[in-house]
């Protein structure tokens, strides 16, 4: 019945609505016909609640389309589950792309948001506020206590991209004021790495060497070069006396879950010291407990510590916030007026982040991330498929690499009730809530296995 109403409402939509809504609806109608004759799925797009169409139609009419989205509308979440308009339950292995570390609708996060919103939300950076100072202290002290990075100051932003943008500005400023006389305008080079992702603003995009993201917006910021990841021998050639910063993810997320080697980070650190460049770790996706330690770089020795670390995604469990953490060497070169933001460091985000950080940076919590990350990895390794090439992981950031593009697997899993995302290099990425249970992991694995069988059917039948 629902299926029929969906198909007929699809037809009327086609006639009436904007290009994007019509395209989405057309895709659903084609799928509807296909699904009608083949197997029923627990979460088939064609069985979506009819309200789904109206919501998508309105969205597409008024919102710029820069994302290819499936025809599903989520209304709420709880823990590791999301629910769509028709109350269908989905197990979420994406956690808002490594954001909802404590799961959806966490009661304590909700309580702090409510309490702080009743107290004060924003008063700008013209004035001090209590939660920002407390969060800064907590971040610096917990970082110093848990590793070798001698962080001393924080600058709060609203997102990961902005944190990286600020970090790059700080590096250029430091180079300018420390350069040999006459060299002040020559030391502006930035080295980033193939398959790295640092954001989409002009500076962050310049450090993100994906032609798909960069090409439409050329020319970008001058001075950026892109070196091969984990290639120790190539470092000297890319990091030169004209380099002011090297920016790197200790574990590449969007790039396909690639873990840096100790030798590589050690060489980067020593080469940065040699040429007077700053080493920036982008831990926006891999940091804050995701790998089972507070910071991903803490899996490496003291010879691999950065000068600047950027963070964002899980810091306030979904409330937008980012931060740049720097050593004294950097802080002492930055003066009033060098950088700014209206919203960054607002009391609302900082109050939430303080609580989230306290809960994540807890030995029991991190042990659990390690244990469940290991379990997740073993489960992935136990999947038998000729299409699977490799499992890569550290804690709760995992990649399942295929021999072919696994993009269709995302829909095959979703239509069975499991949310997953892709990464570069034929990889499916898993970045669930850090407090996901073993039982939930196992439930997701059962769905994933069925989706992979369907993917094999599809792929092998096409190539046969
Ligand atoms: C490693 C890394 N850096 C930077 C960013 C950009 O962060 P945001 O989307 O919060 O601006 C992302 C986002 O996916 C990321 O994964």
Automatic annotation (TrEMBL):
PROSITE patterns: AA_TRANSFER_CLASS_3 (PS00600)
Chief location category: mitochondrion
GO terms of molecular function: identical protein binding; N2-acetyl-L-ornithine:2-oxoglutarate 5-aminotransferase activity; pyridoxal phosphate binding
Cofactor(s), by name: pyridoxal 5'-phosphate
The keyword Membrane is assigned to this record: no
GO biological process: L-arginine biosynthetic process
Key words, A-Z: Amino-acid biosynthesis, Aminotransferase, Pyridoxal phosphate, Transferase
One Gene Ontology cellular component: mitochondrial matrix
Intracellular or extracellular location(s): Mitochondrion
Entry-linked InterPro entries: AcOrn/SuccOrn_fam (IPR004636), Aminotrans_3 (IPR005814), Aminotrans_3_PPA_site (IPR049704), Class-III_PLP-dep_AT (IPR050103), PyrdxlP-dep_Trfase (IPR015424), PyrdxlP-dep_Trfase_major (IPR015421), PyrdxlP-dep_Trfase_small (IPR015422)
CDD domains associated with the record: OAT_like (cd00610)
Keyword Transferase recorded: yes
Enzyme Commission number: 2.6.1.11
EC class: transferase
Domain of life: Eukaryota
Entry-linked Pfam families: Aminotran_3
Functional pathway: Amino-acid biosynthesis; L-arginine biosynthesis; N(2)-acetyl-L-ornithine from L-glutamate: step 4/4
Family: Belongs to the class-III pyridoxal-phosphate-dependent aminotransferase family.
UniProt-recorded name of the protein: acetylornithine transaminase
